[in-house]
Structure formats: C-alpha cells, structure tokens
Amino acid sequence: MLIFNHSGASTFTLLGVPGLEAQHLWLSIPFSSIFVAILIGNGGILFLVATEPSLQTPMYSLLAMLMVADLVSTLGIIPRQLCIFWFDAHDISTKGCLVQMFFIHCASVVRSALLVAMAFDRYVAVCEPLRYNTILNWTMVGQLALLALAKGVVLVLPVPFLLQRLTFCRTVIPHTYCDHMAVVKMACGHTKPNRVYGLFVILLVVGLDLLLIGVSYALILHAVLRLSSRDAILKTLNTCSAHFFLILISYVPGLFSLITHRMGHIIPPHAHILLANFYLLVPSLFNPIIYGIKMKEIRNKISKCLCKKDTQAISSKHKDVSA
After folding, report:
1. Model-level pTM greater than 0.85?
2. CA distances for 29 relative to 23, 78, 131, angstroms
3. What is the SS3 assignment for the chain?
4. What is the overall mean pLDDT for the chain?
5. Alpha-carbon separation of residue 299 from 54, 125, 203, 296 (angstroms)
6. What's the rounded mean pLDDT across residues 70-87?
7. pLDDT tens column, 224-242
8. Do residues 158 and 150 lie in contact, with contact meaning Cβ atoms separated by under 8 Å?
9. CA 273 – CA 144 distance, rounded (Å)
10. Rounded CA gap, 262 and 256, in Å?
C-alpha cells in the first residue's frame, strides 16, 4: 500500500490545460472527436482482424496488439480529461493517479516494443521471404507479445514505488493526466532517483527501440538495393511503407514534445500540455487510417463490409416499397 506524506492528503488536483482553463469546454470538442475516432478506427480494425480468417496472420496480429495498446493509452487519458473539461472534476485520488500513470506509461513502452516486433516482421518478409512462415510462426508472435508486455510492466512498475518515498509539498498538477515527471515536480526534497530512473527508461525504450528498428531497416534497404527490377524495388518498399509511416507518427511528435520541454521558458505551459497529449493520441488516431489506406487486404475488407451494408439497405428498402 502506497502512502503519500502531504499532511494526510489523499488526492491530487489535475489542473487541465494551464492558461486555457476558460477554453476547456471548447477544447473538449476536438478531444472528444479524437476519442470517438480512435475507438471507431482501432475497434474496427480489431474487429476485422478477429473475424476475417485472411487477416489472421502474424503481421496483422502484431497490428492488433498495437491497437490494443493504443486503446489502453487512450482510455487512460481522454475519459478523465473530458471529466475535467465538462464537469470541472479536477480531483483524483493518489491511487487513481498512480493507476492512470502506470497504464499510460506501460502502454507507451509496450507500443514501442511492438513497433520493434513489427520491424522484425518486415525484415523477415523482405530478407527471408521463403522462411517467413517458419520464422514468424504463432509461437514466435506469442513470444514477441509477451516480451513487449513484460518490458512494459518491468520498466514502469518501479515508478509508483519510487514515488512512495517522496513528500509532496504541492498537490495541484498542471496537467490533464498523471504524468510521471509532472507528479515528481510536486515533491519537495530529494527527487534525483525518480528523475534518473525516468531518464533511464526513456533512453532504454526510445534509444534501444529506435536502434533496433534502424538496424532492421538498414538490412531491408541493403536487400532492396540488390534487386534488379525497379518494379520489384517499389513493391518491396511498399510492403514496409505503412510501418515506416507508423514509426514517424509515433516518434516525431515525441521528439517535438521533448524539444519544447527543454525550451522551457520560451514555450508557454499550455503548449507543453497539448503536445504531451497529442504525442500519445496522434499515433492512435492515425494508425487505422494509415493501415486502412496502405494495406490492400484491410482496404478490400472495409470496402466489402460497406458494400454489404449498402446492399442490405437497398434490399430492405425494396421490400418496404413492395409491401
């Protein structure tokens, strides 16, 4: 059981977007729209992968796991955020704050690990196509999923226990959710272990994962450049394009968020908070769009489902007219 030493205080107060408190109701419009789009987009792809036998392959299974991580992260952020925007429900219990923090950060680590697994999938598909089904079998997919989950849990679980030792001088968090460093800044006293561990996790997750993804794509590029046909080169690169765009929208917003955080006094506080939110939400929003556009199998299944619905609607209308 975690005990926080702030005169017996058992709650934190999430301020929302500092400097834009008067615009919270207006801010709820884009965030609620993003929330609905993420639920529909990711839920729709998950439904297709679960129900269509042709999509039950290692690549789409990894994609489904990625979208589950996206949904966990989104559900950890936006519902609580909308409570702040709509109902001025700023208070959150310390246990609730820690649970939210754990799931948001754990989902981010798992997500990054799954991107590495998907890079490995693309490497095998391009460099070892004849052995793809042998290497990327269901046992390997299960092991990759368990490794991603274990990495998230092992790296993030120490965070709340490190927070246990802190004494909190302030309880008003200038954020829309319980971010680790935002909570650490509320403490007085020695917070160096928390800051060092947070930096260690960032370097291990982002640094190591990007290195592994970079190695995979370097090997893929080396294999592609050895192809003699221009059409073969374009076709091979196209098989990796969706994952490559996924990497860009996953890490580039985080880079901007890190830069603005370092620029501190130059960037207004509300810009920090909005970027921190978009860094987590933008990948979840665009993943279904990217895979829906770039992957022919998903595009065909979506078209088939829409056509089926249109056909059913037209037939029911004819029945009503004839009746």
Report:
1. yes
2. 10, 12, 49
3. CCCCCCCCCCEEEECCCCCCHHHHHHHHHHHHHHHHHHHHHHHHHHHHHHHCHHHCCHHHHHHHHHHHHHHHHHHHHHHHHHHHHHHCCCEEEHHHHHHHHHHHHHHHHHHHHHHHHHHHHHHHHHHCHHHHHHHCCHHHHHHHHHHHHHHHHHHHCHHHHHHCCCEECCCEECCCCCCHHHHHCCEECCCHHHHHHHHHHHHHHHHHHHHHHHHHHHHHHHHHHCCCCHHHHHHHHHHHHHHHHHHHHHHHHHHHHHHHHHHHHHCCHHHHHHHHHHHHHHHHHHHHHHHHHHCHHHHHHHHHHHHHHHHHHHHHHHHHHHC
4. 87
5. 13, 20, 36, 5
6. 96
7. 988 878 888 888 888 888 8
8. no
9. 33
10. 10
Give the model confidence (pLDDT) of 119-172 as tens digits: 999 999 999 999 999 999 999 999 999 999 999 999 999 999 999 888 888 899
Give 31: exposed, middle or buried? Use CB within 10 Å, 0-12, 13-18, 19+.
buried
Residue with tokens 């789409």: 60
pLDDT of residue 233: 85
Provide the token pair at 11: 């709650």
Has residue 7 got a pLDDT over 50? Answer: no
Are residues 115 and 246 in contact, defined by beta-carbon separation less than 8 angstroms?
yes
- Which value, to the nearest 10 degrees, does the dihedral of the CA atoms of residues 20, 23, 28, 31 take? -40
